[in-house]
Amino acid sequence: MAAPKPLNYWDYIRVEELLTLQRGLAKSDTEISNDEVMFITVHQVFELWFKLLLRELATARDLFKGEHVAEQELSGAVRSLKRMTAIFRVANKHWEVMETLTTREYLGFRDKLMGASGFQSAQLRQVEILFGLDDATRIPLGAESSYVSALRSHDAKPSPALARVQKSLADTPTFKDAIDAWLFRTPIDGVGPNGKKSERELERFVARFNACYERVVEGTAARALSITPAKADKARLAERYESEKKALAVFLAADGDARKSRVRCAMLFIETYRELPLLAWPREVLDAIVELEQHFVIFRQRHARMVERIIGRRTGTGGSAGVDYLDKTALEYRIFRDLWAVRTLQIPRAAAPELERGAFYAFKSG
Ligand code: HEM
Q1: What pLDDT, on a 0 to 100 scale, did the predictor assign at position 72?
Q2: Confidence check: pLDDT of 144 > 80
Q3: Mean pLDDT throughout 319-330?
Q4: Burial letters 173-184, b for 16+ CB under 10 A, else e
Q5: CA triple 268-274-279, angle to 5 deg
């Protein structure tokens, strides 16, 4: 066999090709300011991170897509999720580089960008779609009727960005749907969703857990009230705890949606009994998802603060309300709301109901 040909770094990384890409509309690097090269480079760096995010997310989604997810696959999913979080964490520092751009310097070239905006970043949309952000949650932009129509070229022709997003919209299930399906199948108190006993056992779990939960809230309320002297404060606090006491039952009832209810119970079950061998990795998965979404939200918040610092509250080049719009996305574009809600409803392990059929969750040999 012939010896492999030695490789040059620049050929493999394609450095020369890469370095020609930061001049925007200028013909050469000498015709463009340092500010603008930085502006383009930082955007490109983000687009590269988005590319990696998409790949990892697709890998994690694929692991949960099948009818059965092998235990030993879960650590691979956690690795993908953790890599995504690390990417967001690092990318979130990159806003600092953009913040070296002053308002005056940015205004020097901003007008050329009219119509072009991060709103047209197809890859960020692809990440959102694959993660599971549904269309009903989306905030209308303003000038465009939807995020999809904003991806058409200005001459109304189809664009590569539009093609990418349409491909993602057709690529199902989303990561969230795949996770929900996996949670739905999770045995609760050792009983899966399809057996004869399944409905009755789930109801028993809900009733037993709710009784423990109410006791915990009552205890906390009593302690809080005993250290609150003012009558008006006491009344306010009592009311608050009263509605907290009902919160678990409302959450688990899921407005009568039986599937959603079971998924929510599974989240609570895994978080509560996570020291059981067969629940330890599922719990790592859930925690990695929450951590990832937390950094996604920080990305949105951090972008908004950078934008406010550079352009104030003026209309964006994409035609949105600018910072107001971006702040709304940080608040409303949440995908795993139920996983966050479970944090509010968890109780200490010692106060939780005794586990039934615990042996089911032990490692099985052979
Ligand atoms: C001076 C720098 C920047 C300014 C002033 C700015 C401003 C804005 C504004 C005002 C919007 C809202 C849409 C609009 O009306 O245009 C927006 C959206 C967006 N920007 Fe930036 N941006 C900057 C840098 C960046 C960078 C470096 C990225 C990285 C890719 C980025 C990614 C995005 C994305 C993905 C959106 C869409 C957000 C969404 O709809 O959820 N921006 N930007």
Answers
A1: 86
A2: no
A3: 94
A4: ebbbebbbbbbb
A5: 95
Express each pLDDT in 106-137 by its tens digit. Answer: 999 999 998 889 999 999 999 999 999 999 99
Ligand 1 center to 31 CA (angstroms): 25
No. of helices (H) and no. of strands (E), the chain: 14, 0
Please state the length of the chain: 366
Per-residue confidence at 165, pLDDT binned at 50, 70, 90? Answer: very high
Q: Per mean pLDDT, which of 58-72, 227-241, 328-342 is the most reliable?
A: 328-342
The predicted-structure confidence for 177-205, as pLDDT tens digits, reads as follows 999 999 999 999 999 999 899 999 999 99
The whole-number pLDDT of residue 142 equals 62
Minimum CA distance residue for ligand 1 atom 21:
118
Q: How many CB atoms lie within 10 A of CB 261?
A: 19
Give yes or no for residue 310 CB within 6 A of ligand 1. yes
Residue 3 covered by a domain: no
108 within ligand 1 shell (Cβ under 6 A): no
CA of 289 to the centre of ligand 1 (A): 24
Instruction: Look up the CATH number of the domain holding residue 295.
Output: 1.20.58.480
Instruction: Tell the residue number behind the tokens 């890469």, with chain if given.
Output: 18
Query: How remote is the CA of residue 118 from the centroid of ligand 1, in Å?
Result: 4
Within a domain: 6: no
In-domain check, residue 4: no
1 lies in a domain?
no
Q: How many folded domains does the chain comprise?
A: 1
Q: Point out the ligand 1 atom lying closest to the alpha carbon of residue 106.
A: 1
Domain limits for position 348: 26-361
